């Protein structure tokens, strides 16, 4: 039996922690993806005749064979690049590791950086950061921290504008947004009439720490010269709780934040603060099983293996606690499923 231990253990044995960023910093992204494709082909040809096992952080020995691996798209708009992931043998759905640079990395290890400058909100630019965004979005929000079985959400676009929130070198959340003038949809000529906050997510262990409000603050500062800012509609009750808290503390932004339908003409906007004051905002639900949007869409991991979903269908994600994840999505992108946010639970909104 060939045991493939967790990456943290291997790194420790080499005399110090080496993150995935350290490993692939000088490696071409195409080389990494091609290596994963080759390994996936090798696994599929063995038809279960393998002696390779992965030791998960929880100590479970997971056999690496065609029944325990999934080959899923890294980007929603580019099927050429795919990620090879290992799922829990017991449920067949919980992702425990990702194959990169010739080895299996646990989900938690992928989200760690040895770079001390990784602190706070940082723009996603490198290939490794794209992978971290994918892991947070599709594997953590969609699987390990999802509130139901077979929950999974489609990846972001390859050039999605996003920021990851780093705490002590660990990726704990993200938000994505659309610039004014960006195309609303590849199949249309309509462009956003204002900046739009699209998706937000905060990991469970970091909720109720004010990260949701910090993301709204950052979003406001990034577009400080804009008189109006959008948040994709529909906004979940949990996200309204975050907005209420943020706008109460920042009166100058009360006239700037609007709930919008794409592309965001004035007839498609509703002032968020006004809705809150008039009591028209949906009340935040206390139950950990509350769903974020009335059009909640969830998809099984098997569906992600061979996606054939039109641009107007993109499931939103979920989260339980108040502050978890907020997805607002213009392509009716994921919809948050559960949340109880104080700062952003998995909630998604669709912008079109």
From TrEMBL:
It comes from the Eukaryota. Residues 288-299 have a biased composition (Basic and acidic residues). Residues 313-323 have a biased composition (Acidic residues). Residues 284-352 are annotated as: Disordered. Signal peptide: none annotated. InterPro entries: FAM169. This is Protein FAM169B. The lineage of its organism: Eukaryota, Metazoa, Chordata, Craniata, Vertebrata.
């Amino acid at each position: 039996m060939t045991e493939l231990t967790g990456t943290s253990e291997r790194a420790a044995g080499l005399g110090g922690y080496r993150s995935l960023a350290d490993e692939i910093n000088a490696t071409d992204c195409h080389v990494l993806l091609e290596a994963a494709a080759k390994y996936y082909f090798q696994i599929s040809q063995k038809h279960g005749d393998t002696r390779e096992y992965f030791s998960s952080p929880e100590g479970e020995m997971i056999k690496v064979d065609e029944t325990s691996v999934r080959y899923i798209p890294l980007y929603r708009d580019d099927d050429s690049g795919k990620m090879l992931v290992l799922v829990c043998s017991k449920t067949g759905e919980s992702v425990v590791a990702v194959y990169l640079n010739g080895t299996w990395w646990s989900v938690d290890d992928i989200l760690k950086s040895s770079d001390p400058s990784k602190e706070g909100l940082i723009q996603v630019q490198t290939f490794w950061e794209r992978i971290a965004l994918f892991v947070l979005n599709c594997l953590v929000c969609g699987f390990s921290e999802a509130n139901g079985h077979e929950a999974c959400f489609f990846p972001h676009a390859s050039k999605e504008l996003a920021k990851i929130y780093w705490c002590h070198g660990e990726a704990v959340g993200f938000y994505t947004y659309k610039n004014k003038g960006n195309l609303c949809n590849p199949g249309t000529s309509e462009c956003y009439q204002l900046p739009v906050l699209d998706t937000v997510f905060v990991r469970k262990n970091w909720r109720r720490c004010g990260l949701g409000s910090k993301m709204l603050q950052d979003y406001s500062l990034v577009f400080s010269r804009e008189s109006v800012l959008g948040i994709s509609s529909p906004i979940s009750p949990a996200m309204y709780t975050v907005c209420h808290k943020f706008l109460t503390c920042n009166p100058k932004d009360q006239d700037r934040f609007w709930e919008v339908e794409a592309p965001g003409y004035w007839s498609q906007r509703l002032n968020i603060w006004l809705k809150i004051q008039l009591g028209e905002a949906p009340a935040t639900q206390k139950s950990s099983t509350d769903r974020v949007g009335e059009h909640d869409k969830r998809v099984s991991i098997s569906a992600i293996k061979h996606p054939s979903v039109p641009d107007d269908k993109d499931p939103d994600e979920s989260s339980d606690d108040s502050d978890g994840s907020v997805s607002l999505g213009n392509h009716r992108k994921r919809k948050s499923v559960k949340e109880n946010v104080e700062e952003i639970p998995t909630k998604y909104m669709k912008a079109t």
